[in-house]
């Protein structure tokens, strides 16, 4: 096991820079998830840790050693890919044993490690099968088994679950999390799926256009996003945003938005009087207003019950509000509803920079 340090790392392909100076420290035994939209540079960063991509500038350290110039096989990392990259002509056993055999390990040691990994992953009944005789989830487990057998200092995962159907994906993410709790191997896991990031990570690193927007524990990012990008990316359904101006005189603090709509604000924001901001409120922080409660009127557009909860989409200030209710209501599209934002859950961001106020 080892810690991974990424210091001022940049990557250019030709003269196009795609990673613009990234710093991430990953502690020994930590499970860190790199998350961000397609093309933000997650795989490129992971591949630089693995040694599959040259580092243009900056430093990557694994276990205290700078690995920039070190070939992949000396870095003592094991990578699990989205497409599994199994050898189709080899049985499961041999797929898992391959890297150790290549290193010239003793047959008995190879056997012991493969059996142990197979046991951990529930693959023992499948060792004599070929990959084509396995389901997607089983193949995925073999790919993990191959990584486990190598007993590396660091696991690197690049979207390992994206070829699986939704149900299996949820099951496998629990399995990977359990596996990590058991092996405690330092892991860097790449995904574009923020739910995967939230549920699996000790710490999340949110990337966007080749930079780190924010790094932190899942619920800390959720509760305290540093800017509108992170606020909008983490959380599903996403945070609602409304642009407007803070007004604090002639009544309680509020946001003045389009079409004369006013959204209530806590008195703590009075100091921002006159400032152009983006007002953010999460769907679960909108409630049905009680008599006398400060609220905003909206017109119901769509009602989406899922059983456990109901998503209400309504129109406010030229935009849409999504609200989530656990209790059941007789919402009807076209009717009006008074929504009250929980005032201590309102986020304000600077309208120009998007930075949290
Ligand atoms: N070999 C390459 N040559 C040129 N540009 C590349 C190369 N590999 C990646 N890029 C560019 O680098 C940027 C980051 O790509 P990367 O694959 O790291 O994104 P990603 O975050 O993993 O996206 P996805 O979620 O779609 O996998 C993209 O703009 C991509 O086009
Ligand atoms: Mg990728």
If you had to describe this structure to a student in words, what would you say it looks like?
- The protein has 357 residues and is of the alpha+beta class.
- It has two domains: 4-233, 3-Layer(aba) Sandwich (Rossmann fold); 240-350, Nucleic acid-binding proteins (OB fold (Dihydrolipoamide Acetyltransferase, E2P)), CATH 2.40.50.140.
- It is built from eight helices and 20 strands.
- It has helices at residues 42-50, 92-102, 107-121, 136-149, 166-183, 194-200, 218-223, 228-233; strands at residues 4-13, 16-26, 31-35, 57-62, 65-66, 77-80, 154-158, 186-191, 203-208, 211-216, 240-247, 254-256, 262-264, 276-281, 286-288, 296-305, 310-316, 319-325, 336-341, 347-350.
- It has a six-stranded mixed beta sheet with strand order 6-7-8-3-9-10, with helices on both faces. The protein has a five-stranded antiparallel beta sheet with strand order 13-12-11-14-20. Strands 15-19-16-17-18 form a five-stranded antiparallel beta sheet, with no helix packed on it.
- A hairpin with a 5-residue loop joins β12 (254-256) and β13 (262-264).
- α2 (92-102) packs across α3, α2 (92-102) runs parallel beside α4 (136-149) and α3 packs across α4.
- The radius of gyration is 25 Å and the shape is elongated.
- The two termini are 39 Å apart.
- The structure holds adenosine-5'-triphosphate (ATP) and magnesium ion.
- Magnesium ion is lined by residues 42-43.
């Amino acid at each position: 096991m080892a810690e991974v340090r990424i210091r001022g790392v940049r990557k250019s392909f030709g003269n196009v820079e795609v990673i613009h100076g990234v710093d991430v420290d990953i502690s020994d035994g930590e499970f860190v998830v790199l998350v961000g939209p397609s093309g933000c540079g997650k795989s490129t960063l992971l591949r630089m840790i693995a040694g599959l991509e040259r580092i243009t500038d900056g430093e990557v350290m694994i276990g205290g050693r700078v690995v920039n110039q070190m070939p992949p096989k000396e870095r003592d990392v094991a990578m699990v890919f989205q497409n599994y990259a199994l050898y189709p002509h080899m049985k499961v056993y041999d797929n898992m044993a391959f890297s150790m055999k290549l290193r010239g390990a003793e047959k008995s040691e190879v056997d012991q490690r493969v059996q142990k990994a197979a046991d951990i992953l529930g693959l023992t009944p499948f060792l004599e099968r070929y990959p084509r005789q396995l389901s997607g989830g089983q193949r995925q487990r073999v790919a993990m088994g191959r990584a486990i057998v190598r007993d590396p200092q660091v696991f690197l995962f690049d979207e390992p679950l994206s070829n699986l159907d939704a149900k299996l994906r949820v099951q496998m993410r629990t399995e990977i999390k359990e596996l990590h709790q058991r092996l405690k191997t330092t892991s860097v896991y790449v995904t574009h799926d923020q739910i995967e990031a939230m549920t699996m990570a000790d710490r999340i690193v949110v990337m966007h256009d080749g930079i780190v927007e924010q790094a932190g524990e899942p619920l800390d990012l959720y509760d305290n996003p540093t800017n509108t990008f992170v606020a909008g990316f983490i959380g599903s359904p996403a945070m609602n945003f409304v642009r407007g101006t803070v007004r604090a005189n002639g009544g309680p603090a509020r946001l003045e938005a389009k079409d004369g709509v006013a959204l209530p604000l806590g008195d703590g924001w009075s100091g921002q009087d006159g400032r152009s901001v983006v007002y953010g409120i999460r769907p679960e922080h909108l409630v049905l207003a009680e008599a006398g409660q400060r609220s905003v009127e909206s017109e119901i557009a769509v009602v989406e019950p899922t059983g456990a909860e109901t998503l209400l989409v309504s129109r406010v200030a030229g935009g849409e509000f999504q609200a989530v209710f656990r209790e059941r209501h007789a919402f009807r599209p076209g009717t009006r509803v008074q929504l009250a934002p929980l005032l201590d859950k309102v986020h304000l961001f600077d309208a120009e920079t998007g930075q949290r106020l």
